[in-house]
Specification:
- Its main location: nucleus.
- One of its GO terms (cellular component) is small-subunit processome.
- Keywords: Nucleus, rRNA processing.
- The chain is mainly α.
- It has a domain of 157 residues.
- 49% of the residues lie in helices and 7% in strands.
- The chain is built from nine helices and four strands, in the order αααββααααααββ.
- The strands form two sheets. Strands 1-2 form a two-stranded antiparallel ribbon. Strands 3-4 form a two-stranded antiparallel sheet.
- The longest helix has 40 residues.
- The radius of gyration is 41 Å and the shape is elongated.
- The model has no long low-confidence stretch (mean pLDDT 76).
Length: 253
Amino acid sequence: MSAAFRKAAKSGQRPHRERAQPAARRKLGLLEKKKDYRLRADDYHKKQNALRALQKKALDKNPDEFYFKMIRAGLQDGVHTIKQPKDEVTPEQVKLMRTQDIKYVEMKRVAEAKKIERLKSELHLLDAEGKNPNQHVFFFDTKKEVQEFDIATHLDTVPELVGRVYNRPTIATLQKETLKGATDPTHLKKLAQQRKNQYDLLKQRIEREKAMFVIAQKIQTRKDLLDKTHKVKVKKETTNSPAIYKFKFQRKR
């Protein structure tokens, strides 16, 4: 029994008890008590110092300041969170990464690369779409030579063969030897269509080889993430490249 209770019992008076603060109201501050003036004063000064610090920070802030967390951060249920960008993965990549092993994907990529090299050696990339056009520059001394310039005469060939970048014989060669190859317009059109189909096939194989390479990199990245080493994402994953992580260096024993 405390001294206050013993003194009140001797005098026959009812002892004074401090009213306990409910747990649900503790967030509202300290309960008014006779002996808590020091606690209330400390709490009041602590809040005033915090408000002054916030006001000073607001005054010192640059109004033109911008950083990306301003648009990525927000409040969710009263909790400050940062929105993480989602990795960009196509459904085909997800399916292959879940069902196939990296060795199988790499094997398919190497097979596609060999087929691409074989097609390139056969086509020599003649008249291919997207190929940088050849530039043949002629130099003259006077403007009169420029006005009288005839490209067929300068290349010593017939005008019908000027537009060809390959197999363009000279007039002397045409006079000595007979013209070899297809000359019928229908046959030439058919050969041109076949050549275009081969270029389309080459383009498809190049795109497929690139897709296989990206999938292999993404599978390898997911395997590397299984390591317990601390890592930080540097660049998010896209449809054309895997995510880039920076791993903490650990010395191997």
